[in-house]
Amino acid sequence: MNREQYLEYADHFNNKSYDKVTSYFAPDITVEYFDNAFGTQFPARTLHGPAEFAANYKALHEHTREVLELGDFMAEGDLVFVELYTEFHTFKDAPASAGQPWKKGDINIMTNWVMYNLDENGKMKRIRIAHFRNHDPGTARYN
User: Fold this and answer.
1) What domains does the chain contain, in order, with CATH numbers?
2) Confidence at residue 43, expressed as pLDDT on a 0 to 100 scale
3) Are 86 and 67 in contact, with CB atoms under 8 Å apart?
């Protein structure tokens, strides 16, 4: 995967084209999230398979607009490493079942580092997301 291909993937994500996003995935993909970017009440979690990934983001996007912006990009063999600046704009209170305390009007901005392991077909097999930094909501670029 090169930078241009990754930008296409991120564009599909930003446009909620879940079928196109998951077309980049191996059938047995795992997506591992950081443990507590918002406090210890939010433990680490892992999604299994493209369908669980899509369901997770469809649920999130029912109340929160999410925009990814690619920063640094590195690829070597079957590894891809990216820096992602991400804005979350909550337009409707998140349900208690969502696991986020976000309320209508909240803006959460963060930078995360993401490591992708690709399979022999160049599909994403394992994604690991590490939280790096939260940013001031007043600096939002994607209102």
Assistant:
1) 3-139 (3.10.450.50)
2) 67
3) yes
